[in-house]
Specification:
Blueprint (H helix, E strand, L loop, with lengths): L12 H21 L6 H13 L11 H15 L2 H10 L5 H19 L28 H23 L1
Helix pairs in contact: 2-3, 3-4
């Protein structure tokens, strides 16, 4: 192969798959960049992970994991884990120190909610991708390679559908 000859790898099906995977990743990159968590289930799992104590905990102790998950549910639903458990067990309101601790935690949570965190990132605006959609002029492949890739894809899709049915 001379220095001016095109590399056959860039016309291969493997290269096309790599480009497809990168395009799919690029379509979802905006949700990865923004660092926003609005999913209630993810927040709840975060509370469980905090109360469970990480990966290095002995779950073989009697009802250890269930008790910690129950505590996570109470903390997630009420926000006042200690007061709620104290009221349920003893039937009266907890001491002032517990209330003070929970009030300080609540104030810290509200303050963090109102303070905007400065993100040290530059968000790149999404632009029209000229390689996809209706604005594409022609495929990057020559006609023969395109036909081969098309046939390979159709065969792969038929085989995949056939194995899903069984």
């Amino acid at each position: 192969m001379g220095p001016d000859a095109p590399n056959p790898f860039f016309g291969s099906l493997l290269w096309q798959k790599i480009k497809t995977l990168f395009a799919q990743l690029a379509d979802k990159v905006h949700s990865l960049i923004e660092d926003v968590d609005s999913n209630v289930v993810e927040r709840f799992n975060g509370v469980i992970a905090k109360l469970v104590g990480g990966k290095r905990i002995n779950y073989s102790l009697r009802r250890s994991y269930q008790a910690r998950c129950s505590g996570a549910v109470i903390s997630f639903n009420t926000g006042n884990f200690l007061s709620t458990v104290h009221r349920h067990i003893y039937g009266n309101s907890p001491k002032r120190s517990i209330k003070k601790l929970e009030k300080a935690t609540e104030n810290k949570r509200l303050q963090a909610k109102h303070d905007k965190r400065k993100k040290n990132r530059i968000l790149i605006p999404r632009t029209l991708n000229l390689d996809y959609g209706e604005v594409v002029d022609k495929p990057d492949l020559d006609e023969d390679t395109f036909k081969k890739a098309q046939c390979t894809f159709v065969q792969f899709d038929k085989n995949r559908r056939r194995t899903k049915r069984h």
